[in-house]
Amino acid sequence: MSKPIYDYGICYPEICEVTRNKKIGFIDYKGVRIIPCKYSQAYLVTKGIISLSNEEDKEITFLSLDYKTFKYKI
User: Fold this and answer.
1) pTM (2 decimals)?
2) Residue pair 45/31 in contact by the 8 Å Cβ criterion
3) Which of 19, 16, 17, 15 is nearest to 6 (CA)?
4) Better pLDDT: 67 or 25
5) Are 63 and 42 in contact (CB under 8 A)?
6) Which one of 22, 31, 36, 39 is separated from 57 by 20 to 30 angstroms, measured CA to CA?
């Protein structure tokens, strides 16, 4: 049996939020990383809009995610 990659995960209709070493990121249903686990806070604001922030810089970033291609714009 292999060791899990992520400490925690929760799936939404098109995307999964995962935690690794107390940092948050997002993967698709196949396990492909979309947004790396490097954020201290993340919120799925509405379909396709994700709010991300870090404790270090206290800056909030909003991403617009295309669920068909899983490409995002800041």
Assistant:
1) 0.79
2) no
3) 19
4) 25
5) no
6) 31
pLDDT at 73: 64
How far is residue 39's CA from residue 19's CA, in Å, rounded to a whole number?
9
Rounded Cα gap, residues 7 and 70, in angstroms: 22
Structure confidence by residue, pLDDT tens digits, 17-60: 999 999 999 998 888 998 899 999 988 877 778 888 988 777 88
Is residue 2 assigned to a domain? no
What is the residue range of 25's domain?
8-73
CA 5 to chain centre: 14
- Residue 35: inside a domain: yes
- Number of domains comprising the chain: 1
Task: Tell me the two tokens of residue 40.
Answer: 């201290």
